[in-house]
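Here is the promised in-class demo. Please do not try to memorize the tokens; focus on the logic of going from shape to residues.
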């Protein structure tokens, strides 16, 4: 794997790093790894072999640590994002529902507190944690509750979590994992969103190079290889072209989203084990992209770029994105009650921009610059969903005066616009629409919220 020539956009650290699934995903997003830690000697071999070119400073400057318990947090270089696939350990009753210092004293063996110590000392902009799905209900939910309480109440970070499958973001593997994300500089109007699911990039037949009986594979595991294909515990046997075949690291590597040039300077058994311990790279990358975008948004909130509008102005922006998402303009009766009848929206234009928004299909819009002729496509469901829309509506209703909406900032940045109101007093229309209904086609203007 070659070193990226892209400008560095952010710095991250890679804790409980394994073979570097987080490292690969963040590198693709423009990140620079300034510190990594992994205790397993075999995983360290694979990590260093593959990242010595991408991140030579880790190994040249002694920043590839072997035991997170032996590093002083203040000795870690400054960074923006903490990434960690940390071990799931129970908290004792002595450390349950107690203050920060008491938790530390009673839970010295719990590796989660090494993450806590680093966040407390370095105060990164954000964290991105990954764990098995069972963490959410671990110890009757006590473990997860303590983790959330410490991150939110004691470290003052926001807290988002979601059960994510590798197959949600393109990879043919079940692999349910809980992703936990939080930000330091987020106010009460919290606006981070996990991305919408994406279609499979390839299926298990593509992985095997033959007709497989499953499109989506079993979750890769560390142990228990060699079960009969009919065994309910089986995860490495597949029926391919009517022949039972066993997974090797070649198939496992593809299922986890690692490239073919990712090498394993260890035994084949170790390679499969390391992949079973790793993260699904594509899932981390897709969620990571939203994290970096939102992190950048928070960086600008206290500058002149911070967008503050009143309720009327936000309502115009709301209408604009609502039309892009729903792609329908509903009719009303004489009492202004919405009916089921609607026009189909094909294009949305704001009069003070040089941009036109063409609706290609339910998920995709094309944004055309009328001045330069440049065109680009955007997957609208990646940035706007019905849930996001309802959250924005609630925020507008509950706010007073002029105010900012962090959720809206991400949408604006992606679509490339700020306001939709007319730029001159003589300009009568805020939004223009190209609409149709059966054999009726028309362009309308002066749409009001």
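The designed amino acids, position by position:
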């Amino acid at each position: 794997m070659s070193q990226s020539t892209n400008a560095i956009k952010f710095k991250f650290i890679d804790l409980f790093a394994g073979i570097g699934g987080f490292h690969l995903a963040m590198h693709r997003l423009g990140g620079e790894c300034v510190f990594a830690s992994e205790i397993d000697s075999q995983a360290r071999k694979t990590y260093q072999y593959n990242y010595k070119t991408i991140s030579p400073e880790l190994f040249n400057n002694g920043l590839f640590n072997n035991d997170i318990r032996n590093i002083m947090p203040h000795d870690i270089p400054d960074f923006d994002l903490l990434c960690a696939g940390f071990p799931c350990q129970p908290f004792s009753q002595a450390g349950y529902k107690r203050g920060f210092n008491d938790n530390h004293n009673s839970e010295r063996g719990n590796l989660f507190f090494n993450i806590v110590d680093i966040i407390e000392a370095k105060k990164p902009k954000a964290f991105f944690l990954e764990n098995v799905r069972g963490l959410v209900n671990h110890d009757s939910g006590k473990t997860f509750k303590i983790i959330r309480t410490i991150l939110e109440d004691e470290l003052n970070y926001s807290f988002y979590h979601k059960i994510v499958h590798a197959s949600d973001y393109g990879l043919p593997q079940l692999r349910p994992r809980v992703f936990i994300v939080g930000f330091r500089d987020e106010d009460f109007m919290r606006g981070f969103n996990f991305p919408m699911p994406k279609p499979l990039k390839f299926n298990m037949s593509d992985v095997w190079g033959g007709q497989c009986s499953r499109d989506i594979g079993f979750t890769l595991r560390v142990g228990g290889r060699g079960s009969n294909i009919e065994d309910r515990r089986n995860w490495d046997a597949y029926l391919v072209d009517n022949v039972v075949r066993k997974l090797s690291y070649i198939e496992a590597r593809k299922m986890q989203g690692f490239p073919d040039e990712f090498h394993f300077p260890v035994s084949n058994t170790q390679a499969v084990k390391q992949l079973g311990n790793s993260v699904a790279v594509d899932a981390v990358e897709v969620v990571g992209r939203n994290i970096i975008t939102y992190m950048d948004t928070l960086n600008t909130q206290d500058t002149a770029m911070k967008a503050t509008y009143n309720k009327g102005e936000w309502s115009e922006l709301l209408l604009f994105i609502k039309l892009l998402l729903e792609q329908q303009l509903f009719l009303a009766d004489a009492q202004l009650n919405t009916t089921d009848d609607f026009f189909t929206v094909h294009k949305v234009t704001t009069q003070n921009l040089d941009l036109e928004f063409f609706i290609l299909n339910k998920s995709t819009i094309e944004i055309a610059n009328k001045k330069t002729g440049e065109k680009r496509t955007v997957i609208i469901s990646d940035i706007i969903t019905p849930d996001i829309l309802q959250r924005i509506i609630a925020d507008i209703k509950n706010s007073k005066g002029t105010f900012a909406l962090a959720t809206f900032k991400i949408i604006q940045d992606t679509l490339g616009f700020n306001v939709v109101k007319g730029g001159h007093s003589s300009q009568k229309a805020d939004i223009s629409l190209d609409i149709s209904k059966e054999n009726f086609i028309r362009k309308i203007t002066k749409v009001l919220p």
